[in-house]
TrEMBL record:
<comment type="similarity">
    <text>Belongs to the class-I pyridine nucleotide-disulfide oxidoreductase family.</text>
</comment>
<feature type="binding site">
    <location>
        <position position="201"/>
    </location>
    <ligand>
        <name>NAD(+)</name>
    </ligand>
</feature>
<dbReference type="InterPro" id="IPR036188">
    <property type="entry name" value="FAD/NAD-bd_sf"/>
</dbReference>
<dbReference type="InterPro" id="IPR016156">
    <property type="entry name" value="FAD/NAD-linked_Rdtase_dimer_sf"/>
</dbReference>
<keyword id="KW-1015">Disulfide bond</keyword>
<protein>
    <submittedName>
        <fullName>Dihydrolipoamide dehydrogenase</fullName>
    </submittedName>
</protein>
<feature type="binding site">
    <location>
        <begin position="178"/>
        <end position="185"/>
    </location>
    <ligand>
        <name>NAD(+)</name>
    </ligand>
</feature>
<dbReference type="GO" id="GO:0050660">
    <property type="term" value="F:flavin adenine dinucleotide binding"/>
</dbReference>
<dbReference type="Pfam" id="PF02852">
    <property type="entry name" value="Pyr_redox_dim"/>
</dbReference>
<dbReference type="InterPro" id="IPR023753">
    <property type="entry name" value="FAD/NAD-binding_dom"/>
</dbReference>
<feature type="binding site">
    <location>
        <begin position="141"/>
        <end position="143"/>
    </location>
    <ligand>
        <name>FAD</name>
    </ligand>
</feature>
<keyword id="KW-0676">Redox-active center</keyword>
<dbReference type="Pfam" id="PF07992">
    <property type="entry name" value="Pyr_redox_2"/>
</dbReference>
<keyword id="KW-0521">NADP</keyword>
<dbReference type="InterPro" id="IPR012999">
    <property type="entry name" value="Pyr_OxRdtase_I_AS"/>
</dbReference>
<feature type="disulfide bond" description="Redox-active">
    <location>
        <begin position="44"/>
        <end position="49"/>
    </location>
</feature>
<keyword id="KW-0285">Flavoprotein</keyword>
Amino acid sequence: MNKVLKTDICVIGAGSGGLSVAAGAVQMGANVVLVEKGRMGGDCLNTGCVPSKALLAAAHAAENARTANRFGVATGPIEINFAQAIEHVHSVISGIAPHDSVERFEELGCIVIQAEAHFTSPDTLVAGDKTIRAKRFVIATGSRAAVPPIPGLETVPYFTNENIFENRICPEHLIIIGGGPIGLEMAQAHQQLGAKVTIVEMMTILPKDDPDMVSVVRDAIKDSDITLYENSKTREIHPAGDLIRVIIEHDGIEITLEGSHLLLATGRRPNVENLGLEEAGVAFERTGISVDTRLRTSNRKIFAIGDVTGGLQFTHMAGYDAGIVIRNALFRLPAKVDHSAVPWVTYTHPEVAQVGMTEAAARARHGDAIRVVTWDYAENDRARAEDDTTGFIKVITTPKGRILGAGIVGRQAGELIGLWSLAISRKMKIGAIAGMIAPYPTLGELSKRVAGAWYTPGLFSEKTRKIVRFLLRFG
């Protein structure tokens, strides 16, 4: 007979969101059971954010060595050990893993069960040989790589983000299907580490980002000798000797590509299968579990957070969701999600970062009653000193200066966007940014400069000049 565990909170999934709920709840005095069938740390640590950024770091180091002569530094021909770059990736994962480990969470006071789990009733979960009854459940099972139904795909080997970081041989020619963040980041990483790369995108790259900023990234991708096919449909795939043949349709013309390796980067699919959601009374679709603004499912004792809800699929959103759940489940506070200031970043070079509304979204909601200001990296002294002046910052406000959104494309855009996320979340006006003191010379001055540009039309107008001339008459 299964042993029955009674607990306050049972968390299913030990990714970013689930670990945050478990750690927070147990340290606040709740009894917590944490269930994970796979690796602790989930997608972010093992196959997503951490390994991709580690590989990009290695790739950017190679590119910096290639281009060091612009500073008068001669490096000569560089040699790339691709396997060692992958070892760097795994060393980074290993360094972070103890923070997410079974041992750490057991030390915190959680009961950790490493087994597949499924609901058998609205308040009962079975995981391995354990039956768990909890006052509240949190489903944080994440998502997985979506595999499109391309004819012939099953006849060839292919990578997704879930296994590409196990490859220790640099691809001779990597064909990537999908031009979203994963596809573009892996394209640049592999190209800079020595691979020939081709990207095939059904629509346009980075469709959720500001088109003006995407244009800058697109130019950088093409300038790096990556071949890019946008608005192209992948018709079929099949083996061609030791190669993989991909037939696409581009501008009405059939084109045959042949590569040594294939990467699918065609989106994510929530992990909702085999959880017994029907038995739990939890409404869901193929696109994810339905939740209200308090992240409660149709069974009010069960919450769902992160990718499994089919919403914004970012690690930082899973962590944010965890805070909402803790306030609701532990403190009975009616905390609700607010997505008005959610930042996101694609870590290409240049990086592209966005928070709040894009210009298109703001115009759709407010019409022409918005103001848009921009400032170029080329006008920033730090960017000039580092010879990296590609990009700009764009801010969208109401006529009275309330910040609706901001986007940055350029060096360290992901680091710079945080200020604008804070400003939007606190409903600040652009004057607060214009009035701050930014250290010189920093890229952070871009934010102050673009905010100052918002006032330029009024400050240097004929009306202002008349006022100044009038006041100067009095000494």
